[in-house]
Amino acid sequence: MTVGKYGDFGAETITAPTGTADERLCKVDANGFATEAHSFVMRYGSTAASSTDVYYMGLREELADFDARRCGAGVLGKALVEKLTAKQRRLFVSELTRAMASRVRAALRAS
Fold first, then answer.
1. Which value, to the nearest 10 degrees, does the dihedral of the CA atoms of residues 108, 87, 57, 63 take?
2. What pTM value is reported for the model?
3. What is the pLDDT of residues 14-35, one digit of tens each?
4. CA–CA gap between residue 103 and residue 39 (Å, rounded)
5. To the nearest whole number, what is the mean pLDDT of the chain?
6. Phi and psi of 94, rounded to 5°?
7. How does pLDDT run across 41-87, given as a tens digit for each residue?
8. For residue 88, what pLDDT band results from cuts at 50, 70 and 90?
9. Rounded CA gap, 34 and 11, in Å?
10. Of 1, 5, 20, 95, whose CA is between 20 and 30 Å from 59?
């Protein structure tokens, strides 16, 4: 799976073993995504000391890992619910690309 170029960040290829999803690794990826999401919303806005681009890139990579492992959406949704408040989840989804926001909404519904 390839994560496309974003600004100054180059494309990256994500690989994962084929076969059945490994529940432990799926949880690791989901928690990594939720941690990046938390960092993103905590540093979002005009008063932020740094750009959220680095966190967005982390989100893309974590989601690609998650997808490459063929993990279930509910695992991702549960990690987001545990890590972010409802208000943070709304802000987070509102700032994502349409494709990623759709994936996150589906994960939250599945949790």
1. -10
2. 0.78
3. 555 565 678 888 899 899 999 9
4. 19
5. 81
6. -65, -20
7. 887 765 555 566 778 878 888 888 888 888 899 999 999 999 999 99
8. very high
9. 22
10. 20
| Cβ partners under 8 Å of residue 73, min gap 6 | 103, 106, 107, 109, 110
Give 3's contacts (C-beta < 8 A, 6+ positions apart): 11, 12, 13, 14, 60, 61, 64
Residue type at 91 in one-letter notation: L
- Which two structure tokens, joined as six digits, stand for 95? 């700032």
